[in-house]
Amino acid sequence: MTSTGRFTLPSEENFAEKTKELAELWGADAIRNSDGTHLDESVLALGKKIYSAYFPTRAHNEWITLHMDETPQVYLLTGRVLAEADIVDVPLMDGFFEEQLKPNRDADPHKYWEVVDRTTNEVVDASLWTLDEDTDTVHVSGATPMHEYTVSFLAYIIWDPVEMYNHLTNGWGDKEHEIPFDIYHPATRKFVFDTFEQWLKDNPQVDVVRFTTFFYQFTLLFDQKQREKVVDWFGCACTVSPAALDDFEKEYGYRLRPEDFVDGGAYNSAWRVPRKAQRDWIDFLSGFVRANVKKLADMSHEAGKEAMMFLGDQWIGTEPYKDGFEDLGLDAVVGSIGDGTTTRMIADIPGVKYTEGRFLPYFFPDTFYEGNDPSIEGLDNWRKARRAILRSPISRMGYGGYLSLAAKFPKFVDTVTHIADEFRDIHDRTGGVAAEGELNVAILNSWGKMRSWMAFTVAHALPNKQTYSYYGILESLSGMRVNVRFISFDDVLEHGVADDIDVIINGGPVDTAFTGGDVWKNPKLTETLRAWVRGGGAFVGVGEPSSLARFQAGRFFQLADVLGVDEERYQTLSVDKYFPTVTPEHFITADVHVDPAAREAWEKAGYRIPLSGCGGGQGIKPLGGIDFGEPVANTFPVNEDVTLLRADGGQVQLAVNEYGKGRGVYISGLPYSAANARLLERALFWASHNEDKYTAYSSTNPECEVAVFPDAGQYCVINNTDRPQSTDVALPDGSVEHFDLDQSAIAWRNL
């Protein structure tokens, strides 16, 4: 029987009868409009809670077309142009989409732009270059032949990037492009608040204002072929204006360069070790954004409506994990559920009354087309999210897009019915309380709490070849029976390690925000962490943890003594390295196996699975074995007392090390898989000397996980696959309970 509540249904014009039918089938208690749609009166009359998407800084071309110098702006970096004589021409818009971006010729280019000799990294004097406005070309004189030159220039954003994406994806053809606008300008800011005030009066039927989102888009730039060119879900590139730059200088006492934004072409990716200018701009921006978000929230409340923020689109500057977010007065945050990591990114946000997840697939024609089965993606998305929801509940769920598309797929309709009922059942059984966490695990990086569940990410829930080996750490932890927090190097340097932390994880490639970069030159950091581990703490390093790009004091990993592993950087090739014998059986690797039948099938298909159960490159996932992802070359044990658990040729893949009363663990990479999540879980329990706690409520099958709810007097076992699974669960009294689970199933038992 269908349960009801905790479900938000998207609807659209001329679809009232089917909306009513699906609302009943899916147990929806709220209905919302999606981008570009409106709700019929008959839908409003269904008696459901009404959400309305609201775009504070778009969808009003009648205003912004009269004030085109008040659109958001971005610093763009041209391509590098080789000077072959003492004069070189640099075209501005080569590689950029002219329907999205337009050079700002209104503000003095010689004040706000910059020409750089990229061979010497020197700024070219403004007297040596001119702008040809007819051709959008910068002419540079006094150039040095065989040097490369770039221009960093301000550009107006003249097509809202998200509306543009939706436009192109849905084939909206001649639909007018929606132009975004920047509230940093007083006239436009007044227009935004006046318009919202009138909208509140004109929409008494709306219960929840779903701000989608506020003022500044994450970095999303397209090339001339309408392909994504720069995507950074945390990027602040699209937030600048001459007025804001001038005000920043007055407040902070120094002037930002264009280079502080284009960053040599990195555009201040979250992977870059953050610098002072970048951090100061985030603080400056968030102060401005938050003050105006609070005003919108207060206006919503005065009109008797809730204020909900969508964690996406123009979310930049809100900083939901930065101290003070709770002061904005928002009632709720909703965000897109891409996997377990993004579920936790939403669910863990403090300072709001409730959180909501927008599940996938989005009801767009790129998924809902004849011959496709959207229910496959729907169940996969639910399984990924469910692990995380058990550990950190969200209060509500829903979908987005065009309901008329989803309604054409009966199997998908049935799938959503099942997912919605199961979501509500979990909440009813647990009272919305998280499952018990047995260890306290801290992720240590440059960003700390401000980027909780946002590490190792470029675009939302889209790991790639360079990131998947690290993103798997978060995805594994998102549904693991541990409590997770994010701490910064500054936290450790200022306050030490908190008494309740059991394990610290530091991982990623060298010279990134996630391993730390030059912070490891500070001896106080290594002193603090060494003392903590020697006193009984646990340190897990993944990839190139504690690394310095420049070989220092004979080490690449500055905590090589803790981890028992270092990396050869071609400085000590004259010093021989000896590998101890691999120890195949260990507490950490106890669940690693390769099924003989699976091995035989794969070998017949032409694949080779190593007998050790390890290895596996990009695209070949060992069945039940460890996938170490992209190799970290030339790692080696620092001595023969290190316990080597897995190695591949000339590098260490998995090793453990006793360090005083504490322990270190090194893992070369950890893409997400059931086997890898189990490996990490065991590593955390072993490193923290909690092996004796591990057995109770653990599953013998890594594809199945257990969540315990002491207050509710229940535990559950979930099947995280699309295949039937069997598993045994050990209970605290020593008895064992057997489970046979259908695909995607969940089973509940009393404690």
From TrEMBL:
In this chain the Lacto-N-biose phosphorylase-like N-terminal TIM barrel domain maps to 5-432
What keywords were assigned to this record? Glycosyltransferase, Transferase
For the keyword Ubl conjugation, the answer is no
Known EC number? 2.4.1.211
Q: Where is the Lacto-N-biose phosphorylase central domain?
A: 440-692
Q: Which Gene3D superfamilies match?
A: 3.40.50.880, Glycosidases, Golgi alpha-mannosidase II, Immunoglobulins
Q: Which BP terms does GO give this entry?
A: carbohydrate metabolic process
Q: Which InterPro entries match?
A: Class_I_gatase-like, Glyco_hydro_b, Ig-like_fold, Lact_bio_phlase-like_N, Lacto-N-biose_phosphorylase, LBP_C, LBP_M
- Say yes or no: keyword Disulfide bond present: no
Q: Which Gene Ontology MF annotations are present?
A: 1,3-beta-galactosyl-N-acetylhexosamine phosphorylase activity; 1,4-alpha-oligoglucan phosphorylase activity
Q: Tell me where in this chain the Lacto-N-biose phosphorylase C-terminal domain is found.
A: 697-748
Entry-linked NCBIfam families? 1,3-beta-galactosyl-N-acetylhexosamine phosphorylase (TIGR02336)
Q: What is this protein called?
A: Lacto-N-biose phosphorylase
**Gene name in the database record:** lnbp
